């Protein structure tokens, strides 16, 4: 049984039966048959439909926002902004897709040689709950613009969002079968991934889930793109604007109730300013209002599921047991819903698991660094490598962080964020491949080499 539960109250909103085997088979057939015709549509036609999707997202952003908030607990304002960001991605690929996929001429000894980008077929997208619309659209907009068709296996706790997205694409004019939501359980994913009609897959989730999908896809010789979370460092050096750094640090740790792959999680502060940063940061975290995500005055809403709440609580308890110093928070909040107090830990021992794992909730860890060398060492000691942020006015330090931080994204004096114009992805156990930008639309295409020699050209050369 797939259940939609309001994390602010713990109440079941609606339940859904997973698709039966014959229903899965029917949808796979539809995807394969639809692709035959859809890949022949013009880029202009696909762009028109994406623009229509953007219009629907913008016109109904509050309805979609309320759906996201009630199903996974994000702040209503943030949910509305998420719908608008999805519209941005649709417009971006509608306006730039033809340029990204245009033939690229290459001079060789042929009459003409060039690179052509062609769609692959049905792509399976295994998506998480934390950004229930954005995660889907940042895959779907470029994939559909490129001429692929999509099969969405969304997180089991956001079935209403998954169905709403399918309906949105249908209303935007995409043919039936171009985008389908599969309400299936985790145990059914392998059967779909192995099916010969599915040609590739993308997953955003844990490194364990990524390893499982990559292993299956590897045995089937299928392309994958994996975005597997992070334990992002947030470095603050003496030359930084401390007021701004502290303000952004709080926002960067508690965005989406602390449930973001690119949320800052480890705050590495130069020893000259550490004490002042700690004082201000803890005070700011303690001022945050935790409560109803539909209330405009709320700063931090609930965690998405009871399991997520229990996981975060256990991670904090293990860190404290290992010797970490608790500066504030560190407990669940009384009452209904899955609420956890904004928490700050310091002096985390080197052998504590929390020092290297991803804590997916409003929990910050503070570290003291002697200099830039130690800051870089601390930043890179985790197995993850998704985002990173460094705060310094020193240009030499900026260049060092850009060069030496082991991450797919480096933001200087700013909060890490995804942007349709820029490639998004990580290194190490944060995964491989890229979403967004020109790189994102080319992940799921056949990069086809074309070499042509004409008889007329051959005669000219021999005369």
From TrEMBL:
Q: In which family does this protein belong, per the annotation?
A: Belongs to the aldehyde dehydrogenase family.
Is Cytoplasm one of the keywords?
A: no
Q: Kindly give the InterPro entries that the UniProt entry links to this protein.
A: Ald_DH/histidinol_DH (IPR016161), Ald_DH_C (IPR016163), Ald_DH_N (IPR016162), Aldehyde_DH_dom (IPR015590), ALDH_GabD1-like (IPR044148), GABD/Sad-like (IPR047110)
Q: Which organism is it from?
A: Pyrinomonas methylaliphatogenes
A molecular function GO annotation? aldehyde dehydrogenase [NAD(P)+] activity
Q: What is this protein called?
A: NAD-dependent aldehyde dehydrogenase
Q: Which Gene3D superfamilies match?
A: Aldehyde Dehydrogenase, Chain A, domain 1 (3.40.605.10), Aldehyde Dehydrogenase, Chain A, domain 2 (3.40.309.10)
| Pfam families from the UniProt entry | Aldedh
Please report the stretch or stretches of sequence annotated as the Aldehyde dehydrogenase domain.
2-450
Per UniProt, the keywords (alphabetical) are: NADP, Oxidoreductase
EC identifiers of the protein: 1.2.1.16
The record's listing under SUPFAM superfamilies reads:
ALDH-like (SSF53720)
Q: Which CDD domains match?
A: ALDH_SSADH1_GabD1
